[in-house]
Amino acid sequence: MPKERGSKVIASNRRARHDYAVLDTYEAGIALVGTEVKSLREGRASLVDAFATVDDGEVWLRNVHIAEYEHGTWTNHESRRKRKLLLHKGEIEKLIGKTKEGGLSLVPLSLYFKDGKVKVELALAKGKKSYDKRQDLAKRDAQREMSRAFGRALKGRR
């Protein structure tokens, strides 16, 4: 069987970019059991309400829902168990310092396959206030309207 190349997104947390201002992103591996990988290959995962914590020098991914594998037996995995993230020691120490600094959270942005291995894109993020969210929406609407007007102007010239 040839080794897979490239990447395939399994699940993404679209709400995270709306609720948080992303300061930095990290790519981490995840320690999984066999039935979890099989379920992920079927695309059965959700990052809603997911977050990461740093406990005793290790980073843990919590509240990620990976559905039980349909063809599994009694060896099937628990769907919402905590999963260990695989990062370099220097990255973990940097995350410990930044999260202790205050107001920063670790939020998973996406879960994907990269060269046959499951990876998670983890963001160091700061929570947005409601007025920040409204500003971002207004900015995005204005940008969309400008691009539409520009497109209409180009079509009119031809």
TrEMBL record:
Q: Name one Pfam family in it.
A: SmpB
CDD domains the UniProt entry points to:
SmpB
Instruction: Name the residue ranges with Basic and acidic residues bias.
Output: 134-147
Give one GO biological process term.
trans-translation
Signal peptide per UniProt: none
Superkingdom of this protein's organism: Bacteria
Do the record's keywords include Ribonucleoprotein?
Answer: no
Protein biosynthesis as a keyword? no
The annotated region (Disordered) lies at 134-158
Main location (coarse class): cytoplasm
Instruction: List the GO terms this entry assigns under cellular component, sorted alphabetically.
Output: cytosol
| Annotated function | Required for rescue of stalled ribosomes mediated by trans-translation. Binds to transfer-messenger RNA (tmRNA), required for stable association of tmRNA with ribosomes. tmRNA and SmpB together mimic tRNA shape, replacing the anticodon stem-loop with SmpB. tmRNA is encoded by the ssrA gene; the 2 termini fold to resemble tRNA(Ala) and it encodes a 'tag peptide', a short internal open reading frame. During trans-translation Ala-aminoacylated tmRNA acts like a tRNA, entering the A-site of stalled ribosomes, displacing the stalled mRNA.
Q: Which family does it belong to?
A: Belongs to the SmpB family.
Provide the protein name.
SsrA-binding protein
The lineage is: Bacteria, Bacillati, Actinomycetota, Actinomycetes, Pseudonocardiales
Q: Corresponding gene?
A: smpB
